[in-house]
């Protein structure tokens, strides 16, 4: 459950799962009033085929706010982003606060054949998935790491039982019948800007950049796409934001070769470091 301030009170957002459905509820007032209101209106839910005995719903908390969710369902891992306090709600106050939804099929992180359903999961910027703990990038849906645990001869593991996270500290833990392990996920967002760039989600790519050189790479891709599309003024505006990747002379020659002197003057006026 999350809350957000609204002009006429506090808006509540609630998510809950059964083995086959994920429900979302929202409304203004008390929780009792919100659930009562659904007697006469449509309840938002996502239903997926298949059942799983260990259906789980997890959230990634950032600055004490849930920003991503992941549901371990029979059909796969259904995950997405959460947006609270949006203005695009219907007259009765109802709204869908889930965005960028996707279903991650279990076959994508199993060794051939039908995907084995995990026993548990946890979510950060990545997904941590048992039985063996596999770290999966939510954006690319690729396994980026597999974790192995040191086990003594008198504590032979029969497999991971579950995963859990501490939202306050950002630490992750997994456990078998004998031991509890702390899972270290270091610098998990280091390559996210590349993932977003490949998807042409430029705003997200820029927000994930760590330095000016990475931002230049994002501006360069946008500039070259605009140049190819003959949107020369737009291309010039992106080139003007770059500091390291291309020199002023290289960029100027591109525009001079096609006679776009206006764009060249735009770079001169905007590109401070040039």
TrEMBL record:
GO CC terms, sorted: endomembrane system
Assigned keywords, A-Z: Metal-binding, Zinc, Zinc-finger
Which residue ranges does the record assign to the Pep3/Vps18 beta-propeller domain? 9-185
Organism from which the protein derives:
Solanum stoloniferum
Any one GO molecular function term? zinc ion binding
PANTHER family associated with the record: VACUOLAR PROTEIN SORTING-ASSOCIATED PROTEIN, VACUOLAR PROTEIN SORTING-ASSOCIATED PROTEIN 18 HOMOLOG
Pfam family example for this protein? Answer: Pep3_Vps18
Q: Does the keyword Cell membrane apply?
A: no
Q: Which spans of this chain does the record mark as coiled coil?
A: none
Query: Know the name of this protein?
Result: Pep3/Vps18 beta-propeller domain-containing protein
UniProt superkingdom:
Eukaryota
